[in-house]
Amino acid sequence: MSETVLSLKNVTIYQENKVILSQVNLDVKQGEFLYIIGKTGTGKSSFMKTLYADLPLTVGEGTIVGYDLAHLKENDIPFLRRKLGIVFQDFLLLPDRSVNENMLFVLKATGWTDVASMQSKIMEVLDKVGLKGIANKMPHQLSGGEQQRVAIARALLNDPELILADEPTGNLDPQTSAEVLAVLKNINENGKTVIMATHDYAVIMKFPAKTLKCEDNTIFEVVQKTV
Q1: Which residue ranges form the domains of the chain, and what is each CATH number?
Q2: Which residues belong to any copy of the ABC transporter domain (predicted)?
Q3: Model's pTM, two decimal places?
């Protein structure tokens, strides 16, 4: 039986005292791929922010990768985020550092000290996203799709239990979006759980998976053909 990596019960999500989503009930098992869809402003990003504790959970019960979101202490948040791989719409690569230096920055910040182990891990994650050989390039030397794949590789550095991807194809053209999705699906097929917020219905049709929709302050499952 698959382990539950995320469980939300009777959760209400607020942003600046305004109800964004109410009565959220959700269980996500290890190895699932889940889309969160909806128009801009319907709560996709607020939902994701609640999962990585950028927004506090004040109503309802929630656990994610073993952490209790409703009773999470501030000094536990960095440890929670090490068990999550977070990918944003903006690649957030440090522009004055090579790909390798971007990766080293994250590893050092999360407690890695052995140089050989760090370099081995960097090569491993770059290989997983199909970018072996670009470690010494600067971000501006890469295409948008390559930069996003570097961001996905960076999210894999600490072997997270769950990947949270918030609009990861939002700044990419359709072909590049499909390439990035193929990378995420491959990571999922190798055992990682992925939750992806998106408004890119084309990639959902190309790579179908369980889909939840944010609408009218609620979140509910939709069948693929009605997306």
Answers
A1: 4-225 (3.40.50.300)
A2: 6-227
A3: 0.92
